[in-house]
Amino acid sequence: MAEGIEPGAARLDRRDFLRASAALAAFQILRGRAIGAPESPSAASSGDSVNLAAVGIGGIGRAQIPLCVGAGFRVTALCDIDDVYAAPMFEKYPGARRYRDFREMFDAEGDRIDAVYIGTPDHTHAIVAIEALKRKKHVLCVKPLTRTIEESRVLVGAARKAGVATQMTAAPAWTDAGCRTCELVWGGAIGDVHEVHIWSDRPLWPQGMERPPGEDPVPRHFDWDQWLGPAPKRPFRQKWPEGHYAIEQIVGTGGRNKKRPRGDDYIAGAVYHPWNFRGWFDFGTGALGDMGCHFFNTPRRALKLGHPDAVSATCSRLMGESWPLASIVTWEYPARENMPPVRVTWYDGGLRPPRPPELEVGRALPKDGVMYVGDRGKMLSTGSGGVPCLIPESKMQAFIAPPTTLERRSGIYGEWIEAIRGGPAASEHWPDCGGPLTEMVLLGNIAIRTGAYLKWDGPNMRFTNSEDANGLLKATYQNGWALKGC
Prior knowledge:
Rossmann fold; 9-stranded mixed beta sheet; alpha/beta; 15 helices; single chain; disordered N terminus; Dihydrodipicolinate Reductase, domain 2
């Protein structure tokens, strides 16, 4: 039975007030409102909290749900399939009603919630989101939006139909760093950009392994069937065998992940849950799916990238069910607006692009970063959210920066609540950015799995030269699950 506080009896009055206040908020929007901001069916005034339900709270939700609260949300319902992993959040918000099945939560909560946070593994994003959209709830989903391209397009269509405020947790391109990058590129700091190189030190979880044999008892505090959702059934394994190389990738002296998300044994040897779902085809989207949305967001905006013409990849040996230890992926984009064709290349697993000759002796490429290559020079930034600098440093010191022209925004959670309250659409609103950005990284994953040079017809969602690749566009839902739009 669900536990927690009950809202006041004046709930219907509050809903009417929220709708009415949205009209007033429209006159208070900051200059530069985004075109196409959703009409919010349950928007709140600037002084009113927004009731939030969260699904998948034990992992990244542990950090992100408090940020939602800081932006003005009020946590009223929490849902997770692992009582132990979720316990810290249940304790942090003792007044929130508790659930294990998100469908039961939606049925029980009804009009008592305005918005939904989704922090589940990649393979269940779509099934949770579609239920929220059917009920016209505002939705924030962790990146990537979905595990497959078809799922992304279904959610984008459902979000448009529902007319709600959506958001995805990619590193936003509307921050000061993102806007500054656009101003530099559009201002011609390095001339026309023909190449972009992006690299990450991920994965920080096991990849490149076979499924472990055998089966472990499912702990009473964990619902394995609910966790699997629409994915193919498989035996539950709680820990890797002692001494297995997958453990070495996480905690061993040879592994790159010296900073685990938390230092508890519950994560250290996990096979699928928690955290290590990312390494498996059925549940996660690997290093590119995890970090690509962060790293590609600003280049996508700065270079006005739409659908690529082609994508290709090379990687370390594939092991049947898991993403490789390292990969290199290249997207080829045609000329668009006033910009020439551009090649965007991704590197993960510790791989990096060739060292540019402009880099000073003794200076190394950062462990993760972005490099823009133009016909008048190169720009280099550290991480997914840094401001790029011209190289060498002497060129940067002599550079006269272009003026600030773009409106900066408040970040992921502030943007989302602004949109709910009738303001501009969030920068990662699914139809405008979240969906297309997710598609970009998922195209790369299909290239990794096929090893083929793939020609892409984006408007028609098909590869023109590979039926094997077309077979990876859609998820095969099992265990009675199906994905249907609103």
